[in-house]
Amino acid sequence: MSASVQSLPTPECDIDSIAGHVERLRQTFRSGRTRQLDWRRAQLRRLEALVRDNGDALLEALAQDLGKPTLEAWAADIGLVAKEAAEARKRLVRWTRPEKVPTPLNARPGRSRIVREPLGVTLVIAPWNYPVQLLLSPLVGAIAAGNCAVLKPSEVAAHTSGLLARLVPEYLDTDCFQVVEGGVPETTALLAERFDHIFYTGNGRVGRIVMAAAAKHLTPVTLELGGKSPCLVDGTANLQVAARRIAWGKWLNAGQTCIAPDYVLVQRERHDELVDKLRGTIREFYGDDPKQSSDYARVINAQHHRRLAGLLKDAEVAIGGDADEGERYLAPTVITNPAPDAAVMQDEIFGPILPVLAVDNLDEALEFVNQREKPLALYVFSEDSRVEQRVIADTSSGGVCVNGTIWHIGNPHLPFGGVGESGMGAYHGHASFETFSHRKSVLTKPTRSDPKLMYPPYSDFVTRLAKRFL
User: Are 469 and 106 in contact (CB under 8 A)?
Assistant: First the structure.
């Protein structure tokens, strides 16, 4: 696996061309082309074909950038895009149909409805950890809603960025979609332009930069940011199942997942048993030497590897801890009972390190979670429905998965997004269409009758009527 993980120089583009690209897309949008349902369906069909026709090439690029196993890459990065595009195409007529709403007595006779209209020229900025899904999945919503889009793939996943920059113009309407490769200078130049919506996935530090740039043009934003997603394991949990599902969610993509379990809070009397079961699960998943496993990914680059290795200094490593910067390998690692103010407990880990902390009871676990910023995801393992309901009611997070990890992101009928520090706005399925649409209110009144009651001069009788009924 490690032999296939290669690095490329940072991609670049001609920064001076960016303003022209945006203006070209804006002219296309003004022409009305993207508003046509036939155009939207055709582009969604072409997007689905892009990922299906080029599955092997995309798999190879993801292996070169992240050492992704084939199954993980297809299921979590490529296949989701094809499914979302097909789902949007299937439901497009229903989504775009005007929504009838009641008309109050004071506005009658008349009829009221909500019409979805496209926003215009949008910008999608994607991260490196799922560089196919997190660039093209938002694009599904942009297309379905009838928008043009500039796509900014992550320069950190350079092989995937280059491949997508070649494929997008081969499959999609080049007057409506533009890929801009590059790093900070290119992103900065993009953010100086006026867009009608910006969709950013990444960390909170850059999210603030994106939001500040958008504010100059009063551009709405969707921010998918992440955070420290907790996993609560209570005294009734099936530990064998919990260990497998926690391990899968944590070490998928070597922990480089925005909704990976970031730390585990387990009742004290079950702490050691859970750690033992995690140890056995790691061996079951990846063998005695995970470094040799074809099913275990790699850290994206040396800089991130050094950051992660630094988190293990002075840590109580119960499982794993082996590191090889040259191969960007960090073993599936469990550390036990770190201090709440330890570095590993401050920021999102975004790597294959799992802290496991013992707590005395559910109250202590909930207090621990609620003292921190609101996470993108929260996981709870329990066979007691009362515990499940209490955790859902007494915590705030972007989403919750009960007796599982990660799975909620794969349901297109569930909006996916954060709250507070973990982001704003949501997407997937119908939520993506809504994110890239404006809900325009329309009230139509007939002219057959035109009662003069509400026109000046206002009589005392009309005033009394207004006070009573309005």
Answer: yes
With a CB cutoff of 8 Å and minimum separation 6, the contacts of 74 are 55, 59
Residue recorded with tokens 């890459």: 73
Position 327 scores a pLDDT of 96
Candidates 143, 261, 126, 144; CA nearest to 199 is 126
Rounded Cα–Cα distance for residues 200 and 210 (Å): 8
Q: What does the alpha-carbon distance between residue 341 and residue 263 come to, in Å, rounded to a whole number?
A: 13
What is the DSSP secondary structure assignment for residue 10, as one 8-state letter? P
Signed CA dihedral, 162, 165, 167, 170: sign only: negative
For residue 229, pLDDT over 70 is answered with yes
Residue 65 has pLDDT above 90, yes or no: yes
Q: How far is CA 459 from CA 109, 121, 451, 452, in A?
A: 21, 50, 14, 11
Pick from 43, 22, 31: nearest CA to 145 = 43
Amino acid (1-letter code) at residue 337: N
232: exposed, middle or buried (Cβ count in 10 Å: 0-12, 13-18, 19+):
buried
Name the strands in the sheet holding 221-224, side by side, starting at the edge strand that comes first in the sequence: 177-179, 148-152, 121-125, 197-201, 221-224, 423-424
Under 8 Å between Cβ of 218 and 255: no
For 26-62, what is each residue's pLDDT tens digit? Answer: 999 999 999 999 999 999 999 999 999 999 999 999 9
- Tens-digit pLDDT profile for residues 392-403: 999 999 999 999
Catalytic residues: 224, 258
Span 282-294, average pLDDT: 97
Rounded distance, CA 255 to CA 260, Å?
6
Residues in the chain: 470
134 Cβ neighbours under 8 A, 6+ residues apart: 126, 127, 201, 224
pTM value is: 0.95
What pLDDT is stored for residue 134 in this prediction?
Answer: 98
Tokens of 126: 């994607």
